[in-house]
Structure formats: structure tokens, C-alpha cells
Amino acid sequence: MRILITIIFFLFCFFLTAQESNEYKRQVSVDGTYLLSFFKTEEARITPFNVKFPLNSKYNFRTGFNINISTSSNKGFEGDLKIGIEIPKKYSEKWSYYYGADINGAYFNYNDRDNATMILSFIPFFGFEVFLAKEFSLSYEPKLIFNHYRYSDPAAIINKESYNEELKLTGLSQFFINFNF
Q1: What is the pLDDT of residues 40-92, one digit of tens each?
Q2: Do 175 and 140 form a contact (C-beta atoms < 8 A)?
Q3: Other CB atoms within 10 A of residue 126 CB
Q4: d(CA 95, CA 93)
Q5: CA distance linking residue 109 with residue 180, whole number of Å
Q6: How far is CA 26 from CA 16, 53, 78, 99, 149, in A?
Q7: Closest CA to 47 of 60, 28, 74
């Protein structure tokens, strides 16, 4: 079912034709996996709310965040903050592509245990964007994520702090619903 919906979506986007320019100053994006439950997967955490500002004609500044102060099982704090640079390239009036890199910082601390987790991520990406209207677009953005974890547990006898690295590639569920203005 997911494959059929994805194929229909891309065919619909392919046959769209544009009559107007897609120039915009700012863009606010919402991660589509947070809105459409049939695309939810167990993938790497990404900031669900993003904002994009042009720095000049060649570069865009990107930022995003995720804050959760009460989890379903306990109270605590989960926070993500992302900043990055993107280089947009216009393919046609209706399509564009872009590439760049983000740096994401995350912090997790729960009230029911003393340990905390900090994650620093470097995220190169390559994305495609289709403009459905001047003010509305959809984008797909696969990413390569390099995570550096720092776990701290003050109650531990040995290894009060430990470190770990991980390399991930996101899958098909990394698409965004964009509002341009």
C-alpha cells in the first residue's frame, strides 16, 4: 500500500505544470512522517519543524527544532536543535533540487533516572522539491547521519561517561510539507 501511494504521488507531481515562478523569501516545513501515520517508520530522529531563510542568491540558512517536555512513560526533557546551510538549484519552474549539510544537537534527560544522553550529529543531505503552488511545495530529502553519542550516568561505578558513534542512512519516509512566503 505504501509503495502504491508513493508511486501515485510521484506520478501526480511529475505531470504538474507551472504557470508562475517559485521565488520565495522564507519557507516553513513540517516533517510529513509526523502528520501522515501510514508513513511512520522506526527511523532516526529528525527535527519535525524547520525554517529556511535565504542568506544570498546562492545559499540558504536552515534551522529546526523538536522539544518534548513530557514523554508517554515518564516526565523529562527531549530536545533537538538543527542548523545548516543548503545550496538550491532550480531545475525547472516546477522542480528544484538542493544539497548541503546540517549540524544537529540533541539532549535527553528523564526524571525517573539520573542518566542523560547528548547527541551531536553531522547530516549531509540531497533533496528534491516540487512546487504544487507558489506558496506550497513538497520535498523529499534523504540524509546520511553521523551521530556521536555521550551517555552520562552518575550512579555508575565504572564508566560514568561513555561515548559511541553511529552512521545511518534515512529511508523513504523523509519528506516535508513546505509553506513558502
Answers
A1: 555 545 677 889 999 988 999 999 888 776 655 666 788 889 999 999 999 88
A2: yes
A3: 13
A4: 6
A5: 35
A6: 23, 5, 27, 17, 32
A7: 28
